[in-house]
């Protein structure tokens, strides 16, 4: 990985010398995440959504053509089914989701997007991709790849700790779900060559 910045880049962004103190690094990550969430909140609000609703729409859309159960949605968001039920009810009231009885198993209900939700999601994703590219335009493409790999490594470590029971699970309903292609690219970059 090449994470070296030129003197011009360091001067432009007034970057202090990097000190690899774990607590400071985590504080920097949290501060950046908080600021990104602020940018995303106003961005999603333009479309009448929140980051949680955006995540739900993406998960339900990606479950097509079969649809998505509330249980599956709760698992993907790492939230309780009661929390997800409240969110789904509000999204149904906002005419973003349908809850349909499964044809193969009448005991299950499946969530699918309304036409309004599909249109909103399509418009938002075009704008979202452009705005996120602008947000990250301070990085060169190789720096973005390195950042994606580093974040994936951290996420894998956190997942490993959750599975081992050494850390509590991290709810992600308020996090933006990564685009599947980006995740596949990052995972590909982590595989050994050959």
Low-pLDDT ranges: 173-194
Strands ordered across the widest β-sheet: 1-2
Question: What is the strand tally?
Answer: 2
Structural class: mainly alpha
Give the number of domains: 1
Largest sheet: 2 strands, antiparallel
In short:
The chain is mainly alpha-helical and 194 residues long. The chain has helices at residues 7-13, 22-45, 51-62, 70-77, 81-93, 115-135, 141-164, 180-190; strands at 97-101, 109-113.
Describe this structure in words.
- The protein has one domain (19-190): Orthogonal Bundle (Arc Repressor Mutant, subunit A), CATH 1.10.10.
- It is globular, with a radius of gyration of 19 Å.
- Strand 1 and strand 2 form a beta hairpin.
- The protein has helices spanning 7-13, 22-45, 51-62, 70-77, 81-93, 115-135, 141-164, 180-190; strands spanning 97-101, 109-113.
- The longest helix is centred in the first third of the chain and has 24 residues, at 22-45.
- It contains eight helices and two strands; from the N terminus they run αααααββααα.
- Helices cover 62% and strands 5% of the residues.
- With 194 residues, the protein is mainly alpha-helical.
């Amino acid at each position: 990985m090449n994470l070296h910045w030129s003197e011009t880049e360091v001067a432009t962004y007034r970057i202090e010398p990097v000190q690899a103190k774990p607590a400071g690094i985590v504080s920097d990550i949290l501060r950046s995440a908080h600021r990104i969430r602020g940018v995303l909140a106003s961005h999603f609000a333009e479309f009448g959504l929140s980051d949680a609703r955006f995540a739900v729409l993406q998960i339900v859309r990606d479950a097509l053509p079969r649809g998505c159960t509330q249980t599956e949605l709760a698992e993907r968001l790492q939230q309780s089914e009661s929390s997800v039920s409240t969110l789904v009810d509000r999204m149904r009231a906002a005419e973003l989701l349908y809850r349909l009885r499964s044809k193969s198993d009448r005991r299950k209900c499946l969530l699918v997007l309304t036409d309004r939700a599909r249109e909103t999601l399509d418009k938002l994703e075009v704008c979202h991709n452009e705005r996120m590219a602008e947000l990250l335009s301070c990085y060169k493409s190789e720096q973005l790849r390195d950042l994606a790999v580093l974040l994936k490594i951290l996420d894998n470590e956190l997942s490993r700790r959750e599975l081992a029971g050494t850390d509590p699970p991290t709810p992600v309903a308020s996090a933006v779900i990564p685009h599947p292609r980006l995740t596949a690219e990052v995972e590909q970059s982590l595989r050994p060559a050959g």
